[in-house]
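Lab notebook: predicted structure, single chain.

Context: the supervisor wants predicted structures on file for every construct in the current expression panel, including those that have not yet been purified. This is the next one on the list. No modifications to the sequence; it matches the entry in the shared construct table.
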Amino acid sequence: FESIQDWTEASIKSGLADLAKTLEVKMGALMQPARIAATGTLSGPDLMPMMGLIGKDQVIERTRGLAAALK
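Prediction complete. Output recorded below exactly as produced.
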């Protein structure tokens, strides 16, 4: 998420799509992990607007925290 300059719903979605392409997986495969990292839940409102509201710095911090916990 660090590479996303303009933290909007469209740019977040584009960033996840780019990551999916790089990892050679469908974007859907990234949605649940991204949701859990960003919100701490498996369900809820649309993810991109939620990530926009949470804010870039907080999403990055939470994603790093989840990644560290999984190591």
